[in-house]
Amino acid sequence: MLLVLLFMLLLLWIWHSSWQRLAEEQELQAQQQLLIYRTALEAEIARFENIPRVLQSHPVLLATLAEPKDPDRVMQANLLLERIGRETGAETLYLMDAHGFTLASGNWNTPTSFIGQNYRYRPYFKDALQGSFGEFYGVGATTGVPGYFFGLPLGADSRPSGVLAVKISLLALEHSWLPSRDLLMVVDPDQIVALASRPELKFKTLIPLAPEARQRLAATRQYVPMRLEPLELGIKGQQRQWQGQDYLVSELPLPRLDWRLQLWWPSAPLSTNASLITATSGVSLAALLLLLLYWRQRRRYIRAQLKAKGELEHKVMERTSALAASNYQLERQVQERIQAEARLRSMQHELIQSNRLAALGQMAASVAHEVNQPLTALKNQSANTLMLAQRGMYPQVEESLQTMGRLVDRMARLTSQLKMFAATRRTTAGRARLQEALDNVLSWLQPKLDEQDITLCHQLDPTLYLPMELHALEQVLANLLVNSLDALADMAGGHIGLEASPVRLTLWDNGPGIDTALLDKVTEPFYSTKQLGQGLGLGLAIVRDLVEASDARLVIRQHLGGGAEFIIGWTDGQDKD
Fold this sequence. Notes:
It catalyses: ATP + protein L-histidine = ADP + protein N-phospho-L-histidine. With 577 residues, this protein is an alpha+beta fold. Helices cover 51% and strands 18% of the residues. It has 14 helices and 18 strands. The strands form four sheets. A six-stranded antiparallel sheet has the order 7-6-11-10-9-8. The protein has a five-stranded antiparallel sheet with strand order 2-1-5-4-3, with helices on both faces. It has a five-stranded mixed sheet with strand order 13-15-16-18-17, with helices on one face. Helix 8 runs antiparallel to helix 9.
C-alpha cells in the first residue's frame, strides 16, 4: 500500500509539472503572437495619423474656414477631402469650425454625410481645439460604424479657427483575426471590448460598468447605441470560463488610448497533454518495474544454471534499452524542430508585412519634416523679394532670387534621395566648404535669428573644407541651428557658438540644455522633448544618420557655460570624453 501511495503521488507530481511546463510554453507563444498582432494594429493606425498634418496648412481648407458661407470654397474643400480619402484609404476626412459644426466632408454626396453635424462633444475635437493632436475610438454618431478618429487644429496655435478630422476603419483588421481559434480582443480602460476576433464579444464588458463610467461614456457618445452588457464569465483559479470552455489569458499593453491586447487560449489541451504524459510515464514506470522484477527472478535462475550466459543477456538488454530511448528522443527532437521552423516562418512573414506598413508612415513624416524648412524659407524670401522690387532695389532682388533658386535646388536634392531609401544607405562623405554651407543656411534662418535677437558667434576660416557633401552639411547645420533656436525661444540674451577645424565641428547654445537622462534618447526617431504638435522628433535622428554616413561620430552633452553642445568628429577628431 505504501508503494501504491508513493506511485500515485509521483504521478500527481508528473501531471502538475507537465501542466505548468506546457502552460509556460503556451504563454511564451501567446506573447509572440500578441507582439505580431500589436505591431499590425499600431502600423494600421500609424499609416493614417500623418494625413491631417500634411493638410494642416492647405490653402483650400484655410480659405473655407475663413469664408464658410462661400459655396464655391466649400465645394473645393469637399472635393479635396474626398480625393485624399479615396487615395489614402481613409474612411472619410471632414473639416469643422471652432464650434464643432462640419463645414466640409469627404462623404458630402452620401446619405450619411457629416456636413452640418456638430461633434464638439467628441474628445478628439476638444483636444485639437486646445492645440494638441486628438485621438479617439468609438461608434460613429452619424453612420453608426465604429472607427478610429484623429483631430488636428487649423489656424493660429494659440486660438485655432477649426479642426481637421480623419476617421479610419479597423474592420478589415478585425476580419483578419477571424480564422484564429483563440479569442483575440482589445480592451479599453473601462474593461469594454473595443475590437474582437468574435462578433459576439465586441462591445461587451469584462466587468459590470459603474454608473459614473456609463455617464462619462454617454457624454462623449463613445459607444452609442451599444448596450455594453457584461459577458457571462466564470472564474476558476487563473482560468476564465466562457460558453462552457476554459481559457487562460495572455495580455500585452497598447500605448494608444491606454488599451490592452488580450489573447484567450483554451486550457483544455493542456490538461489532455499533461494526462497523456502522465499516463505514458506511469505505464513506462510500471513496465520498467515489472521488467526489473522479471529480470531479477530470471537472473537468480540463470545464475544457478549458467553465470556467464546471464551476464551476457543482461548487457544485451541494457544496450537495447539505451538505443530505443535514444532513438525515441531523436525522433521527438526532429518533430519538434520541424514544427518550430514552420511557426517561425509564419510569424516572420506576418512581421515583415507589418514593418512595411510602419515604414510608409515613417517615410511620409520624414519627407514632411525635411521639406518644411526650405518651404518656410521660400515663403520669407518671396515676401522680401516683393518688397525689394517695390522699392526698386534690383541688385538685392537678383540676390534674393538666387537664394530662392538654391532653396529649390535643395528641395530637389531632398526629394531625389527618396529613390535611394528603398535600396541601401549611401555615404555622405565628400568635400564641402563650411562657409558656403553656413551662408546658404543663414539665407533662410537669419530672419528668425534677428526676430529672436539671438547672436551667432563664429570665427570661421572662409577656406575651411569639411569631409561631407554640401547638401548633407547644410541639413546638419540647419537642424542643429533650428534646435538651438527652439531652445532659446522666449529667452533674452541668447547666443549660439560655432567652431570648426578640418576634422571637427562644434555648435553650442546657452539655452536650458538637455537632461542628462535623455542624452541617449534624443537621437531616436520620433522622440522629442518639445510640446505636442511642435515637432516630429526627426531632426536629431536625421543629423545622426547623415553624420554616421560620412564616417563621423555625433556627441551630445551639456555645455560648460550652460545649454547643449553638439560635437561632430571625423577620424582623429572624435570626442574622447
